[in-house]
């Protein structure tokens, strides 16, 4: 497929697409939105999108945790396209960028419904289940050096 992955500029048209996708897939089903403060803070993060031409297929955000660890957040793939390898491509891109930037570990708060997907990508559960946005999650991580 003609998919390309790239880093998105905060505040750009692509960024607006990304916020909309995350809203529709991650927040709206829970009756939640994004605050302006929350979105303004994303200027400090690495924003990543998967595109076919101008159409966004999936996205995620990378947030620095500490010197060696980066956190994957807000991973979303267009609802009609799940299971087509887009998520796996995004993860591979994330790991490659993180390695280039000197990180040795990627971690995330995975919704329990997504744990199987991340395990296929080589991530391991760390610790006990917890609730975030009232949904069960696990911390997962992978060493990427």
Account of the 3D structure:
- 28% of the residues lie in helices and 41% in strands.
- The protein has helices spanning 13-27, 36-40, 86-100, 115-120, and strands at 3-8, 46-52, 55-66, 69-77, 105-111, 124-132, 135-143.
- A seven-stranded mixed sheet has the order 1-2-3-4-5-7-6, with helices on both faces.
- The protein is globular, with a radius of gyration of 14 Å.
- State mean pLDDT (0 to 100 scale): 94
- Give the % helix: 25-40%
What assembly state would you assign to the polypeptide chains in this entry? single chain
Query: Number of helical segments?
Result: 4
The beta-strand count equals 7
Distance between the termini: 29 Å
Shape: globular
Task: Tell me the fraction of residues in β-strands, as a range.
Answer: 35-45%
